[in-house]
Design brief:
The chain is mainly alpha-helical. Helix content is about 60%, strand content about 5%. The strands form 2 sheets. It has a 3-stranded antiparallel β-sheet with strand order 1-2-3. A hairpin with a 4-residue loop joins strand 4 and strand 5. The chain is globular and about 65 Å long. The relative contact order is 0.13. The C terminus is likely disordered.
Length: about 525
Amino acid sequence: MPGARSARRWRTTVGWLGLWLALAALHGIWSVSIPVMASPDEPSHVVRAAAVARGQWSGELGAAPTDASMPGAATTVRLPSDYEAALKLPNCFAFYPDQPASCQQDVAPPDGSTVSVETFAGQYPPLYYALVGWPSRFLSVEASVYAMRVVSGLIASALLVWGVARLRSTTLPAAATWAALIALTPMTFFMGATVNPEALEISSAVAFWAACLALATSAGRPARAAVVQAVVAGALLVNARTSGPVWALAIVVISLVLAPKGRARALWAVRSMRWAVALAVAAGLAATTWVATHGGVVTGDHLFPQYANPVRVTRAVLSLTNAYMLQMIGDFGWLDAPSPPLTTALWFAAAGSLLLVTLAAPVSRRVRLGFVLAALVVVGAPVALQIPTAVDTGIIWQGRYTLPAAVGVPMVAAVALTSVRGPLDELVRRMARWTVPALAVAQVAAFWWALRRYSVGLKGQLITTSPDWSSPLGYLSAVALYAVLVAAVTGAAWWSLRPTATASAAGPPRSPAARDVLPAPVTQEPSV
């Protein structure tokens, strides 16, 4: 009945809005609890954001480095006087995991003058910095860092919820929930809560993955909402960082591999899809034009001649695969605060169980190929993207760089499991449900470990009421608040995975990919 449908739609909207607020709050706790300039390269990103907010989109690019002591060519911009001192804030604790953040000095308020400040992110695409940098126009540098972090977290949370909502409408809800829990590692929250363009790249990748998978595997005319999501999220992804176009292309290719025979032709026949492709091409051209005209993004001139050999680069990068995996789960600060063993063990167990169930499931060759390709991108992309630049920059890859691709692996697994009809449904629901409390514990443990690193150092006490350094939220009080919010979110996820008589009798909606395995009814996503 119309009234019932309206009430159901209202409850759904309120539910997703509540999830956005909860994720934004989790990001916000991270933002306030981490010292200023305590995330990777945050000083350079803060300066870049403040400069873009003042119309300095390119600045003055300096000379390329002549040795490996500098990470690249510096860009000089003009900013208020307090930014110069703020750049030095992490120097006393970055890379020293046993040193608490209490060594930071106070930053003098701006004196009304402007000074020359250097950033090593001065040639990066400006979109992210324009979105988050505006608070710096009316706040001091320390206050603006917190404000920019909160804005970044709000944007990231919205994109993550958009992606999860789209995925749940496309796949078996239990599989979608399982995938989302695994994809949203502690590192995704940490990066989303600090000033770093990877916050936008990772979150927009989640939304883009979900939209592309929905368009590729749904039946009938594409839902207009999915088309809009693909265009918006894709445009954000390709313009977030220089690697964005690579991830976007990989996502599109893998989604087309998963699409049933004739689906790509059917999508192209729809006018709105042709417009979407045109807009995507325009966004891609904007991204590539920026990179082509700002060569200072990657600088150096054969500083690492030992990596002129692609085979040597390949061996060096592949030997770091395990380290990259650990960093994708969580290695906070300046790669000096790894997640505790409990977090990594629980995450590997949860992710491994999903991947093994997917590999063992009786899916079609096409679906299995798409899943394997997604996994291969995670392993192979660091190699492919570093071979052309390693001779100039060395091996600089970090696990967080791969997260835009890695978040898609469990999402593809969810699509694959949805293509299997019958006895796997209950197994997926049960495994997903028991993943919820395990990953909740892993999330809280990772947050606690990160705060411990800055409050007392990694060799300090686990529990203390008098830490060397404390955020505005406090040390243990911030951990307790974070645990309460995580419990609320995971409690909702646990409840949504409860067994229901209706679901058992009717079965879940099916992706048309299921037709390649067993005939099954297809629930078409409504066009809006």
